[in-house]
């Protein structure tokens, strides 16, 4: 997949990696549509790129359609849809977290991808070409014990991408799941890690992440990661799941789980 001349929608592109990817897509020659829930951020990024944008809540099917319609009326049918919007949520070790957080993350991390696929797949299938790129997280390959809702919904995002790839790759629609590790964004910083945290030391800049995404699209890889070897956790699980669980508990928790929900 070459981005030059392609019509690309990037959700969550008002800041962070979404903004960096939108700018990089435009630099590659794509006609980018910017969308984010924050109107001022949409205007800033769209004006900076010289393109169109729409402030929208992409957890709502009608909003997803409005973004797709803007792309069609401005540039033509969507060639690439990057479902990137997400929310970090609080770190709550040993806590099953509130239903309201689960519902928000389910809608944003899973259903928004599904709404986008329903909206753009018919045209992609008719043309025998298109690209669905979904941002999950390296957490989708492993887990994050202090974030129950985030971990489970990111796993679900990966599962949805797998299903879409199995179903539609044979019809010419490329599907990738982007599972990045730590990135220097406000989402990462909202976790309030200690200054010497490995997560901060390992974090890539949004521009570095955009480079990884563009390279992954060019190679049309299903699983795109920011650190070579991240996918090895899948082998570790398949080889000895119980050993992996014990190791994950020791590595991430460092102490017995907290009692109660």
Q: Could you list the spans in which at least 5 consecutive residues all have pLDDT below 50?
A: 255-261
Portion of residues in beta strands equals 5-15%
Distance between the termini: 46 Å
Q: Structural class of the secondary structure composition?
A: alpha/beta
* Largest sheet composition: 7 strands, parallel
Helix content: 40-55%
H/E series: EHEHEHEHEHEHHHEHH
Number of helices: 10
Shape: globular
Number of strands: 7
* Rg measurement, Å: 18 Å
Strand order of the largest sheet: 3-2-1-4-5-6-7
Quaternary structure classification:
single chain
Overall mean pLDDT stands at 90
Considering the chains and any ligands shown, give keywords for the structure.
single chain, 261 residues, alpha/beta, 7-stranded parallel sheet, 10 helices, 7 strands, 50% helix, globular, disordered C terminus
3D structure, described in words:
With 261 residues, this protein is an alpha/beta fold. A 7-stranded parallel β-sheet has the order 3-2-1-4-5-6-7, with helices on both faces. Helix 1 links the parallel strand 1 and strand 2.
Give a brief description.
The chain is an alpha/beta fold. It has helices at 16-27, 39-49, 61-74, 99-127, 148-168, 186-189, 198-202, 206-219, 232-239, 241-253; strands at 7-11, 31-36, 52-55, 80-83, 130-135, 173-179, 223-225.
């Amino acid at each position: 997949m070459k981005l030059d001349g392609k019509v690309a929608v990037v959700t969550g592109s008002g800041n962070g990696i979404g903004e960096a990817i939108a700018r990089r897509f435009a630099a590659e020659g794509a006609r980018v549509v910017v969308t984010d829930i924050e109107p001022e951020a949409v205007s800033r990024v769209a004006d900076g790129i010289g393109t169109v944008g729409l402030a929208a809540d992409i957890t709502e099917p009608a909003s997803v359609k409005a973004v797709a319609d803007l792309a069609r009326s401005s540039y033509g049918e969507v060639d690439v849809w990057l479902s990137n919007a997400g929310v970090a949520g609080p770190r709550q070790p040993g806590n099953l977290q509130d239903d309201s957080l689960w519902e928000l993350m389910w809608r944003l991390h899973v259903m928004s991808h599904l709404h986008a696929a329903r909206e753009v797949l018919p045209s992609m299938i008719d043309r025998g070409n298109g690209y669905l790129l979904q941002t999950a997280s390296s957490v989708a390959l492993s887990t994050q014990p202090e974030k129950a809702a985030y971990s489970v919904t990111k796993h679900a995002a990966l599962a949805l991408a797998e299903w879409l790839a199995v179903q539609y790759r044979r019809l010419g629609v490329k599907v990738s799941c982007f599972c990045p590790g730590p990135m220097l964004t406000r989402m990462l910083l909202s976790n309030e890690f200690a200054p010497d945290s490995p997560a901060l030391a390992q974090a890539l800049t949004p521009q570095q992440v955009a480079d990884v995404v563009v390279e992954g699209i060019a190679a049309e890889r299903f699983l795109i990661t920011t650190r070579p070897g991240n996918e090895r956790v899948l082998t570790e699980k398949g080889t000895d799941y119980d050993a992996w669980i014990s190791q994950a508990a020791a590595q991430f928790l460092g102490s017995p789980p907290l009692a109660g929900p």
